[in-house]
Design goal:
The protein is mainly alpha-helical and 177 residues long. Helices cover 90% and strands 2% of the residues. The chain has two helices and two strands; from the N terminus they run E-E-H-H. A two-stranded antiparallel ribbon has the order 1-2. Helix 1 runs antiparallel to helix 2. The protein is rod-shaped.
């Protein structure tokens, strides 16, 4: 805080200069407090937006996982249907049926393995994206908490400085009366 010098007037300092100084000090304090409030609102808005983005991402992930599971179930039903068809053919042509069954089982396993791999890859990608977004939100929340703490500390220092200045003025005023 800048040191204020007041002209001597009568038995103390010039009352108009002291009043003007206190008004300026209060104005500066109010401006800083308003700026801190604006900054706090901006950070709260950013945090809310990040939370909404995370929620939307999680919902998309859940929908994609559901879709993948549904596709996998359809492929499994398709494989089961193919196996049933092969079983019927087995009754009429045993040798041919063994060949068809072996081929169908191989294809079914490949389809299941491929679908499973795709589901795992997609799930891993979605989880990685979600974790990255959670980390960003965590960092934003930490930064917000630090900024709020810093702003609170600045406010306490400003209030203390104002109180000290007021006390000095009172002492000087009482000392010169």
């Amino acid at each position: 805080m800048a040191e204020a010098m007041f002209a001597k007037a009568g038995r103390g300092y010039d009352r108009e200069q002291v009043d003007a100084f206190l008004l300026e000090l209060n104005r500066t304090h109010a401006e800083k407090e308003a700026a801190w409030e604006d900054q706090k609102r901006e950070l709260e808005t950013a945090l809310a937006e990040a939370k909404e983005a995370l929620k939307a991402s999680e919902e998309r992930s859940a929908e994609q996982e559901k879709s993948l599971r549904s596709a996998l179930e359809a492929k499994e039903r398709e494989c089961e249907s193919l196996q049933a068809s092969i079983g019927q053919r087995m009754l009429s042509a045993d040798a041919r049926a063994e060949e068809i069954i072996a081929d169908a089982e191989r294809k079914a396993k490949e389809l299941q393995a491929k679908a499973h791999r795709r589901a795992e890859e997609e799930t891993a990608r979605i989880i990685a994206e979600t974790r990255a977004k959670c980390a960003v939100i965590g960092q934003a929340a930490d930064a917000f908490t630090k900024r709020i703490g810093s702003a609170s500390a600045d406010l306490r220092r400003t209030e203390s400085a104002i109180n000290d200045a007021m006390e000095d003025l009172r002492r000087k005023a009482l000392g010169n009366s």
